Structure formats: structure tokens, C-alpha cells
Amino acid sequence: MPRFSIGRRLSRRWTLLVAVVMEVFGPPGTVATITYLDVNAQPQRVDAATLPWAYDTTTTQPAVSSMSPPRATATQSAVESRLTTRSRTRDR
């Protein structure tokens, strides 16, 4: 059993694992161009993505809480996007 002196400060590092889901949706089969920042804050682009589209990952990066939903454009249909982290959802 480890012994600790009184007043000794113990430090523990907690790692929070965060689930991230980005979704773009619209009429099934719609083709869209999607741009988003990945969990490492690097810009990504998906050309000619067929909807519905999703990006699903987990991370320990603290910047995930400030991420914004992906942006999508389609030529003939209205599309919507959503970013879900843990259990909080932000719609755009």
C-alpha cells in the first residue's frame, strides 16, 4: 500500500474521450460539396458527396467543444448540417 505524506499534492490527469458526429442531409441522392474542420482543426473538403453523409470519430482534443457544423452546398436542393458532440447538438 503506498504511503503519502500529509500535505503532499497528488496530480491526476484525466482524459476526456469525446464522440463527434457531423452530418449533412437533404433529399436522398442529392450530391453536395462539404467542407469541415476535422478533430485536429485541419480543413477538409469532400467533393460530390451523396447525401445523407456523415463523419463519425472520437477524440481527446479539447478544441472539439468549439467546432462548428460542416458547410455544404448543393446545386438543386436545400441541405442541412448538424454537429453532435457527446450529447449536445448544434444545428446550422
Q: Roughly what is the average pLDDT, rounded to an integer?
A: 78
Number of helices: 0
Named CATH architecture: Sandwich
User: What structural class should be given to the helix and strand makeup?
Assistant: mainly beta
Multimer state: single chain
**The CATH homology group name:** MmpS1-5, C-terminal soluble domain
Share of β-strand residues: over 45%
Q: Give the tally of β-strands.
A: 7
Shape: elongated
Major β-sheet profile: 4 strands, antiparallel
For the record, the CATH class is Mainly Beta
Helix content: under 10%
Radius of gyration: 19 Å
First and last CA, distance? 53 Å
List the helices and strands and how they pair.
Layout (H helix, E strand, L loop, with lengths): L17 E8 L5 E7 L5 E8 L2 E7 L11 E4 L5 E6 L2 E4 L1
Antiparallel strand pairs: 1-4, 1-6, 2-3, 2-5, 6-7
Short description:
Helix content is about 0%, strand content about 50%. It is mostly beta strands and about 90 residues long. It has one domain (about 20-85): Immunoglobulin-like, CATH 2.60.40.
